[in-house]
Amino acid sequence: MQPKDIVAQFISDIQAQRFDEAKALLVEEGFEYVGPNMRFLRPDDMLAYQFGMAAIQKDLIVRQLSADGEHVYAILDYQTHFKPIGDVRLAVWFRVRNDKIHTVETFYNAAVVENMLGGNLPSAS
Fold first, then answer.
1. Could you name the CATH architecture of 1-115?
2. Are 112 and 40 in contact (CB under 8 A)?
3. How many whole angstroms separate alpha carbon 87 and alpha carbon 49?
4. pTM for this prediction
5. Which tens digits make up the pLDDT trace of 17-29?
């Protein structure tokens, strides 16, 4: 599969809350997720956080998905059922090698989420 197809499948799996299928698209060793105020070095940690957010997820809409070699860029609308958060626009940079996602870097205004969680966001251990 092409990197763009792998990322499209990953996003689809997260949208449908198929976390085991999403995990299969991530490398086990050398994985890194970096967000505005959290960092995970293991796929299980990132997916546990995603699982925790599943209760408020209404939809995950892909507005744009483009690729340049192993680099895939997505613009997403993360729609929630949780009024204090509302909808969050995300820019996500994926790096894919050997048919697996190695890094995920997410850009969004995290102030609302951080305030909701009382500043207690997870980080890599």
1. Roll (3.10)
2. no
3. 18
4. 0.84
5. 999 999 999 999 9
